[in-house]
From TrEMBL:
The lineage of its organism: Bacteria, Pseudomonadati, Pseudomonadota, Alphaproteobacteria, Rhodobacterales. Coiled coil: none annotated. Keywords: Redox-active center, Signal. It comes from Roseovarius indicus. CDD domains: SoxW (cd02951). Residues 1-19 form the signal peptide. PROSITE patterns: THIOREDOXIN_1. This is Thiol:disulfide interchange protein. Residues 48-131 form the Thioredoxin-like fold domain. SUPFAM superfamilies: Thioredoxin-like. Pfam families: Thioredoxin_2. The keyword Signal applies.
Length: 192
């Protein structure tokens, strides 16, 4: 009986973990995503009131890379906790018909916004500043974007780089240099 229980336990551990449920729209739903009216100025104000950064997460039905991010990156406890603690996440559907209001005041569907902002891939994450200059749209205002599925380390490094406002620092360490340093630190055992 003990051997059978060990075999069952091993099989359970081998099964894939699905961290996010699938919504009626075919997009993954994580507990750290916010349901909003998708008025970006209101979303930014709410994010700021909570002391968080606004993140726009574009996905689409059937996206294998979105699934990869949800199953392999967003499901990681360290990443999920970092998102919950630091980001106000609004999910957008690359082909969606839900109306949004851009920072510049233009009302349009999610799919029209994706075209306006030049978004071609999913997932794409836009990281927004705490203040958006008048007249700028979300793509123009974004301090960073993440087009595609990346590993846990790259994703967490970019989220940290944005949250710490390292894009404002005049130390010559752009994201690529910051990420390379973080990889070396992890390899040397100095960070998680």
């Amino acid at each position: 009986m003990t051997r059978l229980m060990s075999l069952v336990a091993a099989l359970m551990l081998a099964l894939p973990v699905y961290a996010a449920e699938m919504g009626d729209d075919g997009l993954h739903k994580a507990d750290w995503m916010r349901e909003t009216f998708k008025d970006l100025n209101e979303d930014l104000a709410e994010a700021n009131a909570e002391g968080k950064r606004l993140m726009l997460l574009f996905e689409q039905r059937g996206c294998v890379y979105c699934r990869k991010m949800h199953e392999e990156v967003f499901s990681d406890a360290e990443v999920a906790d970092y998102i919950r603690d630091n980001y106000f996440v609004v999910q957008m559907n690359l082909h969606g018909d839900t109306e949004i209001v851009d920072f510049d005041g233009e009302a349009m569907t999610e799919k029209a916004a994706a075209r306006k902002w030049g978004l071609l891939f999913t997932p794409t994450i836009l990281y927004l500043p705490e203040e958006v200059e008048e007249g700028k749209n979300a793509a123009q205002a974004a301090v960073a974007s993440q087009p595609g599925a990346f590993s846990k380390g790259t994703t967490l490094d970019l989220m940290t780089w944005v949250e710490e406002k390292r894009y404002e620092l005049d130390n010559g360490e752009d994201f690529q240099r910051y990420h390379a340093r973080r990889i070396k630190e992890r390899d040397d055992g100095k960070t998680d």
